[in-house]
Write a structure and sequence with these properties.
Radius of gyration of chain B: 25 Å
Order of helices and strands of chain A: HHHHEHEHHHHHHHH
Helix content of chain B: 25-40%
Low-confidence stretches of chain B: none
Oligomer: heterodimer
Largest sheet of chain B: 6 strands, mixed
Structural class of chain A: mainly alpha
Number of helices of chain A: 13
Number of domains of chain A: 1
CATH architecture of the largest domain in chain B: 3-Layer(aba) Sandwich
CATH class of the largest domain in chain B: Alpha Beta
Number of helices of chain B: 17
Strand order of the largest sheet of chain A: 1-2
Number of strands of chain B: 22
Radius of gyration of chain A: 20 Å
Strand order of the largest sheet of chain B: 6-7-8-3-9-10
CATH topology of chain A: ABC transporter involved in vitamin B12 uptake, BtuC
Largest interface: A-B, 22 and 30 residues
Shape of chain B: globular
Shape of chain A: globular
Distance between the termini of chain B: 57 Å
Mean pLDDT of chain B: 90
CATH class of chain A: Mainly Alpha
Strand content of chain A: under 5%
Mean pLDDT of chain A: 91
CATH topology of the largest domain in chain B: Rossmann fold
């Protein structure tokens, strides 16, 4: 255990926590926007899997990382259109259609991977980019400011999302259709359009999350996410539908994952116990949600399709 | 545009929904500076007509002329752009947003894509000062009382510069004092030259506020009149299509022994706050105790506690005929003679998907009368149900009809039939005629008085002051969990009860 509490290991753990938090954060922020508009998307994991696969495939075929990021985003957007048509256009039950999206993404990414790639081949990873000056701060700079661009983007999106929700007219529309869509409708705010756009933004961010996941790992395998997208949905509840809270949750998960990895590497966790250690994030989810249950106010219209009557 | 020009003319508006013609060739005109009331029973077509005006529905036939020009209103935003405002019966506010945010919602911002809430707040303050509508723009709406929320709704409409304002049953949730305040504001808005459409079925209010009254029945106009030319009785007759007795006749009170005693009752509400604070009262055989109060002052919790659906704090007790039933469950209390007509009739009073017959034996289905060796005795149940449907004049195609397809008044009659057929010694009637047509309400009142004559002790919880004053022998007024006064029914005046409902306690004779 003493091996863990050395400065270099702690800095490395912090750095890896921030890296690991990136996909959680991107997906959760997107899901926050969707849920604030009243739409629950349980299919985040499926969207992430599909965009992770296409990102991976793009970089495998072209070697171009930024094309791969763009591909991930576009796949997310396309899944957003699909989910928007299903839940907003056709007013389908969100819980069930989200599970459908998940299974679709899981199955299709698996199928395409087997057909187009077959055996996992490593690809280039997102390079770390030093932020001028800040990266030179001892230890802190190494942990925070020597990360990849998608990580920076994810953390910049936290204040951006908060600003979008609290200070813009579109954010006001999102919050109102998530709380009382009848009221928004009576004032000429299109509930359908607002929710559709919120879904598109949310799914695009889930797409980015998939790209971030695969491009940080540099490899794809079937069911790469292992439920990460579901945790991202849970983090929205954990963060009480606020971007800063969601960021806190994502960092906590990044930290738990990084610590488990680090402890395994240092032999603090015996190999025989590693399966148990892998359950840590899941156990943490359950405990956090129990602790936070009751205290927060969910958007009142969450999961409720809108009909005029 | 003088005072006699029309701001609005609706001509031959027809709208059909599957199975029902909601509006059948309705004509309506509204002048500048006028309060024009639309009066009618539930389902008469008032709401449909104004929803067409506001673009929420599209008419099948008919024309709308606004300021003399024909317009087509395709959506609420088009209505708002045409300076039509609407105060909906259920407030169209987002509780988690501030007043300013609620006002700004759907409006263009001067600082797009960002909101310009400072500007909105300033304008809201100006409007509220100008029209005597006290609202604070920076408070979240969920912190506001009902009357304040309504002022926010009016500010919203004024902010959009509405010249034609539709108010759909705006007084349903207000105390009598708040109603008076609202009417002052509405009158002033009309005097400023706006046209107001006021929707209500409360005859007293209609008579006091309206310039003209158009009565609708079954989707058609019965006639247009003015308060000077008509009376409450005539309006009721126009609404229902036959003569109606507005004030029930009540024989002299034959007061007997106390049937129900409530002592030192303290009850917690859903959010742990104290909803009912140490109250005591008795109801005697042959007496109707009215409990007046604005909804949310502890009446619901009190009713649930008496019915055995909600726990009371230690130290409080509920007794029936001198026997303590505080620890008994609902079943035991019913067996002891409690009848219960709950406030939310579709949630707590009947099961919508069940047939009329099933709802009629919902309480007694396991009694000896309706079972044979543990199996339901359908023959006996049918006979009993047919008898009750007949006795209580329930309008239903048959006893096997799903209850959900009945009108509100008839569902209430089903519940009434079930509860009264068990010959209750104590009857707890909560909002028994809310949302019920005048005809059915008249019938329910007659039944409650019959029950009183045969010695039932009745608690009548109602927000309808006319109902309380017409039926109750004593009136207890609840305010913030307390019974602030108990007044003899024949001595009670509307004004006095209204003040008590608002928490204004003067030196009154209490007993």
């Amino acid at each position: 255990m003493g091996d863990f509490f050395t400065l270099s290991v702690l800095v490395a753990t912090a750095a890896s926590a921030i890296r690991l938090a990136t996909p959680y954060l991107l997906a959760s922020l997107g899901e926050t926007i969707g849920q604030r508009s009243g739409v629950l998307n349980l299919g985040v994991d499926g969207v992430m899997l599909l965009s992770a696969f296409f990102s991976y495939w793009a970089v495998l075929e072209t070697g171009n990382l930024w094309l791969a990021v763009l591909v991930g985003l576009v796949v997310g957007l396309a899944m957003g259109i699909l989910y928007g048509v299903i839940t907003v256009g056709l007013s389908a039950t969100q819980g069930i259609s989200g599970i459908g999206i998940f299974i679709f993404g899981l199955g299709l990414s698996d199928l395409l991977f087997r057909q187009q790639v077959g055996t996992p081949k490593p690809v280039r990873r997102l390079p770390n980019v030093d932020v001028p000056i800040l990266s030179d701060i001892p230890h802190l700079g190494e942990a925070l400011f020597q990360r990849n661009l998608l990580t920076y983007l994810a953390f910049l999106l936290v204040p951006a999302t908060a600003l979008l929700l609290s200070r813009t007219t579109f954010g006001l529309n999102i919050r109102s259709v998530g709380e009382n869509p009848q009221a928004a409708d009576s004032l000429g705010v299109s509930v359908e359009r607002t929710r559709f756009v919120a879904i598109l933004i949310g799914n695009s961010m889930a797409g980015l999350a998939g790209a971030a996941l695969v491009l940080q790992l540099g490899i794809f395998q079937p069911n790469l996410t292992q439920g990460l997208g579901f945790i991202a949905v849970a983090l929205v509840y954990f963060g009480a539908w606020r971007p800063a809270g969601v960021m806190g949750g994502a960092l906590l998960y990044g930290l738990v994952n990084a610590t488990v990895l680090q402890w395994k590497a240092l032999g603090i966790i015996p190999v025989s116990g590693s399966d148990l250690a892998n359950m840590a994030p899941a156990i943490l989810t359950i405990l956090a949600l129990i602790a936070l249950a009751r205290r927060v106010h969910a958007p009142s219209a969450l999961t409720k399709p809108f009909t005029r009557h | 545009m003088g005072p006699d020009t029309n701001i609005l003319e609706m001509r031959g508006i027809t709208k059909a929904f599957p199975g029902v013609v909601a509006n059948d060739g309705i004509d309506l005109d509204v002048r500048y500076g006028e309060v024009h009331t639309l009066l009618g029973e539930n389902g008469a077509g008032k709401s449909t007509l104004v929803k067409i005006l506001f673009g929420l529905y599209q008419a099948d036939e008919g024309d709308i002329l606004l300021r003399g020009e024909p317009i087509a209103v395709g959506s609420p935003s088009e209505a708002i752009a045409s300076r039509i405002g609407m105060i909906h019966q259920h407030f169209m506010l987002v509780p988690t947003l501030t007043v300013a945010e609620n006002v700004a919602l759907g409006m263009d911002s001067s600082r797009r894509p960002f909101t310009d809430l400072d500007l909105v707040s300033r304008r809201v303050s100006e409007i509220s000062e100008e029209h005597g509508l006290a609202v604070n723009p920076s408070v979240e709406v969920r912190q506001l009382a009902v009357g304040e929320r309504q002022r926010v709704e009016i500010v919203k409409a004024l902010y959009r510069d509405a010249e034609l304002l539709v108010l759909d049953e705006p007084t349903a949730v207000l105390t009598p004092g708040e109603v008076d305040d609202l009417f002052v504001i509405l009158r002033r808005m009309a005097d400023d030259g706006r046209g107001l459409i006021f929707i209500s079925h409360k005859l007293r209010e209609v008579m006091s506020l309206s310039d003209r009254i158009t009565v609708l029945r079954n989707g058609a106009v019965v006639g247009t009149t003015t308060p000077a030319e008509t009376s409450r009785g005539q309006l009721a007759q126009m609404m229902v299509g036959r003569a109606v007795r507005l004030t029930p006749e009540k024989p002299v009170l034959q007061e007997g022994p106390a049937r129900l005693s409530v002592e030192n009752l303290t009850i917690h509400g859903d959010r742990d706050a104290v909803a009912v604070n140490n109250i005591s009262f008795q109801v005697r055989s042959g007496e109707i105790l009215g409990i007046a109060g604005v909804s949310g002052n502890g009446q619901r919790e009190l009713a649930e506690a008496v019915a055995g659906l909600r726990d009371v704090e230690p130290g409080g007790s509920i007794s029936m005929d001198g026997v303590d039933v505080t620890g008994d469950d609902t079943r035991a209390r019913r067996d002891r003679g409690l009848g219960f007509i709950p406030e939310e009739r579709m949630r707590d009073g009947a099961i919508a998907e069940f047939t009329v017959s099933e709802n009629l034996v919902l309480v007694d289905h396991d009694s000896e009368e309706f079972t044979i060796r543990g199996m339901l005795a359908f023959g006996a149940i049918r006979k009993h149900s047919e008898q009750l449907v007949d006795d209580f004049a329930v309008k239903t195609p048959g006893i096997d009809t799903p209850t959900s397809s009945l009108s509100g008044g008839n569902i209430q009659k089903v519940i009434l039939a079930r509860e009264l057929s068990a010959s209750p010694t104590v009857l707890l009637a909560c909002q028994p005629t809310r949302g019920v047509d005048i005809g059915a309400a008249e019938y329910i009142h007659t039944r409650l008085i019959e029950q009183r004559s045969i010695g039932t002790a009745t608690i009548l919880i109602s927000e309808d002051l006319d109902e309380i004053l017409g039926l109750a022998d004593r009136v207890a007024v609840m305010y913030e969990g307390d019974i602030v006064a108990i007044v003899q029914g024949q001595d009670a005046s509307r004004e006095q009860i209204g003040l008590l409902m608002a928490g204004v306690v003067e030196q009154t004779t209490s007993s």
